[in-house]
Amino acid sequence: MNAPMNPNKALWEKGDFTRIAESMRESGEALIQRLGISNGLKVLDLGCGDGTTAIPAAKLGAEVLGVDIASNLVAAGNRRAKELGLANCRFQEGDAANLHQVPERAFDLVVSIFGAMFAPKPFEVAKETVRVTGPGGRIIMGNWIPNDPTLVAQILKISSAYTPPPPEGFVSPMTWGIESNVIERFAGAGVPAEKISFARDTFTFNFPSPPAALVDAFRKYYGPTMNAFEAAEKNGRAGDLQRAGRTVQPPKPEHAQDATSIPATFLRVTIAL
Ligand SMILES: C[S@@+](CC[C@H](N)C(=O)[O-])C[C@H]1O[C@@H](n2cnc3c(N)ncnc32)[C@H](O)[C@@H]1O
């Protein structure tokens, strides 16, 4: 008998997130450069995609495990690590809300940049990240902020407005961008608020094409937007969604010739255990 479909996994395997991730490499690398990663540091990257942050961490000498729910992205990450000759970086399939294959206290640093925020069961995510982090270790999350006017928060907001209502009990990933929710979730994992700090940070999407191509790439390759377009097409609202998508671009995206650079604000959460 076939195993029942996991909608969270299906959502991310549906598209090809590597096509978006290509525009995120510079910011991923810059963020990792700021984390004080030294040789041999044990790093877990949760919801790692194809390694936008895992690969730069390995280049700095860390021992990196990337875990992601999407098998296509795990394969892409392993391919990239192999091509770069990074024997200290491997990727495997797993769920940020249930890391049963990962031993406790195994990592010095757990990073999750726009990754674990997409796992259902946020309280389980907090418990699991704390369980696998060693004493004196750190957890760093990058989370999109609900209603933020910049790129991805707006794309996710518009997408959800055109997607059928989620099942009862569904918790929006965007709630990870609200500080009080983060504090409550980690309190449930035994972490006091004093150990958690927050900062606004910026991730810049660099695309080697005009701004409209970026919105098109989200339509073609980004699971949440693909689902929104499918639902909108069924209801004859695809044109409305396409027009709504165009409003997402900042009035004056920085672009020279055919390249586009769009900054997006996120909440950086640091937990020092
Ligand atoms: C927006 S992408 C970000 C990927 C990567 N961190 C980056 O910055 O390029 C979200 C990632 O989270 C992964 N993901 C979603 N739900 C997950 C879960 N429950 N457990 C592990 N990974 C998950 C997706 O497969 C996808 O790779």
What's the structural blueprint in terms of helices and strands?
Layout: H1 7-14, H2 18-21, H3 25-33, E1 42-46, H4 54-59, E2 63-68, H5 71-83, E3 89-93, E4 107-113, H6 122-132, E5 133-144, H7 151-162, H8 179-187, E6 196-207, H9 211-221, H10 223-234, H11 238-246, E7 254-256, E8 259-272
Parallel strand pairs: 1-2, 1-4, 2-3, 4-5
Antiparallel strand pairs: 5-8, 6-8, 7-8
Helix pairs in contact: 1-10, 7-10, 9-10, 10-11
The protein binds S-adenosylmethionine (SAM).
Please, could you describe this protein's structure?
The protein has 273 residues and is an alpha/beta fold. 38% of the residues lie in helices and 23% in strands. It has eleven helices and eight strands. Strands 1, 2, 3, 4, 5, 6, 7 and 8 form an eight-stranded mixed sheet that branches. Strand 2, helix 5 and strand 3 form a beta-alpha-beta unit. Helix 1 crosses helix 10 and helix 9 packs across helix 10. It is globular, with a radius of gyration of 18 Å. The mean pLDDT is 91. Bound molecules: S-adenosylmethionine.
Q: What series of H and E elements makes up the topology?
A: HHHEHEHEEHEHHEHHHEE
Radius of gyration: 18 Å
Mean model confidence by pLDDT: 91
Bound molecules: S-adenosylmethionine
Structural class: alpha/beta
Give the uncertain stretches in residue-range form. Answer: none
Q: Calculate the terminal CA-CA distance, rounded to whole Å.
A: 43 Å
| Helix amount | 25-40%
Question: What is the tally of beta strands?
Answer: 8
Largest sheet: 8 strands, mixed
What is the tally of helical segments?
A: 11
- Cα shape: globular
